[in-house]
Amino acid sequence: MNQGLSLRLSRVASLVGMRNCVADLGSDHAGLPIALVRQGQVNAAIAVEVVEGPLSASRHQVKDAALETRIDCRLGNGFAPIHRGEIDAVTIAGMGGKTMYAILTAAHALPHIAQNGFRVVLQPMDSAGTLRYLAKQLGWTMRADVRMVDRGVSYTCLSYDVGDNALCDEADVQEKLLRLPPFETLPVDERMTYVLGEVPLRSGCRLAHEALEQEIDERERILLALNRGGTEDARARRALIEAERAALRALRERYFS
Fold first, then answer.
1. Given strand 19-25, what is the order of strands in its sheet?
2. Which of 104, 136, 166, 171 is deepest in the core (most CB within 10 A)?
3. What is the pLDDT tens value at each position of the chain, 257 positions in all?
């Protein structure tokens, strides 16, 4: 199921499953929508770009693939150019997790993420914990939380369905989002579990273990740097990082000892 895609995007495509119409936000030459249509996974697709240059490139690729009647390329930010009920899935790949969070919680997203049966497929470059947190708070059903390697780089791929246990009323979703505590304010042990993902941790897979060790190493480096400073801010920062390191070590003991 390659269709010219990288291993990373091939994994994203596999998580889409069979859908009617998917929107690919930040489509980057429309490679993913083209592959999904060609593979028969979707009947139609919408490639969305926020600037004109990549949008023009996407249009050229779609034209070269002779798929202009099935893939529409639109200019806009996030869900803004998508009409209510027009799609039953979204893919967002290759962006930072915090950017994805902002897209998924914007007003234009509400008609879609409150739609029963809607599918969300994400491949964040960082901050996957914020997305896991959002999905859980909105009651989305997890389909996949996996790590994979492409060209020596480890990536997280997430897939959720807005199912029967999810908030499916726009007003309820909006109210929930307004009251949602910021991710950074969560108890440190809970936040570190979101950062790494409970499903990958429970799987005991090598990539999850490596990700955990990288998180610990990162905090060791930060602490070394902070030890050189004696300001009040540095002391507060050091206490936070030490708490995170302790929580990560506890996860290592629990899942990989």
1. 71-75, 42-49, 19-25, 89-93, 119-123, 153-161, 141-150
2. 104
3. 456 899 999 999 999 999 999 999 999 899 999 999 999 999 999 999 999 999 999 999 999 999 999 999 999 999 999 999 999 999 999 999 999 999 999 999 999 999 999 999 999 999 999 999 999 999 999 999 999 999 999 999 999 999 999 999 999 999 999 999 999 999 999 999 999 999 999 999 999 999 999 999 999 999 988 876 678 888 889 999 999 999 999 999 999 98
Locate the domains of the chain by residue range.
7-183, 188-256
Q: What is the pTM of this model?
A: 0.95
Q: Which residue has the tokens 């980057």?
A: 28
Q: Report domain 7-183's class.
A: alpha beta
